Amino acid sequence: MIVLALLLCAGNVVAQQAATPRTVTAGLYVNPPFVTEDHGKFSGMAVDLWKALAAELGIQTTFRAYSTVRELLDAAARGEIEIAVTNLTITQNRALNVDFTQPWFDSGQRVMVDQSQTTDFWDILDGLQDSGHLRVYIWFAGIILAGTVLLTLFDRRFNPEFPNKWLDGLAESFFAVMSIASGKPTGRKNFFGWVGRVWHGLWLFCGIAVLAYVTSSIASVMTTLSLNNQIAGLADLQGKTVGVFAGSVSEDFALSSGFSIRTYPDLEHSVQALQNDEVDAIIGDAEVLEYYAHQHPDKEVEVVGALFEPDKYGFALPLRSPLTRPLTVELLGLQENGVVGDLRTKYFGEVK
After folding, report:
1. Average per-residue pLDDT in the chain?
2. Does the pLDDT value for residue 231 go beyond 80?
3. CA distances (Å), 87 to each of 36, 42, 57, 97, 335, in order?
4. Which residues neighbour 300 within 8 Å (Cβ) at sequence distance 6 or greater?
5. Which domains are present in the chain?
């Protein structure tokens, strides 16, 4: 009986080894720091982990890169590749089409914004129009124009030193009116005694009031625009346009949350769209966004808000792949002996 049991065990081992391909095609989606590419050479945490697994199983690997997560998963579902290597979130919908290994990384979603975005002149003009201040400014402009004409007619009648040419006279009167509007004395000659002084004082008071109104209204509009445009996390994305990666869980989440979205093949294109004002923010895997912001300080992007939609990463394989079980067993071993933890520390530092 003992000999028979040993023979059966040996047969199982041989069968498992026969079912494990010696050379496999691994599909990749470049998404630093999990998968990076440098002149056709691939590295990153997911690639390093796969290489460690492949070494344990005696597997040789050829790599094939795909442009989007969706293309990578479709290739695995069709059996075009034996394994999909990147930071793939394990979801129920995906598990209907592909097999997943044991999870090897805990993550979630965060929001990226552009720090360099500022309120421009046209934003302020729209804000003034929406708040009704622009209409008041038009009335002020009309009063200034009327005051300029009336002052010109008055000085041409009573002031012999006033310029004879109309353009010169209008310019002189306009300067006097604007001096009053800005709260500065004009130095004009008083033709009406104390009545004229009182009149000048009243106009000076009106000018100061107008200047205070214009200043406060612009400041109010700029403050409102700043508060409305500020994105500090997920709660501020309602009514905004969000950038996501095509075929990612970020896209699924954004659609289910009712956000207006635009899809891009990778983070580089998403950041370019963010800085071109095509989108207001980007939703993506927390570690990917944080790594990009740290590696590209010149881009002036910032990852904001708390982690949401926690998820787990795994490698994907075609359904009923003979590699699924041996990979999961080896992955559990690498987790237990600290290899996975060491790789995480290598790419993300010590966990605080």
Report:
1. 83
2. yes
3. 12, 14, 21, 17, 16
4. 114, 115, 116
5. 2-107+312-348 (3.40.190.10), 114-118+231-308 (3.40.190.10), 132-229 (1.10.287)
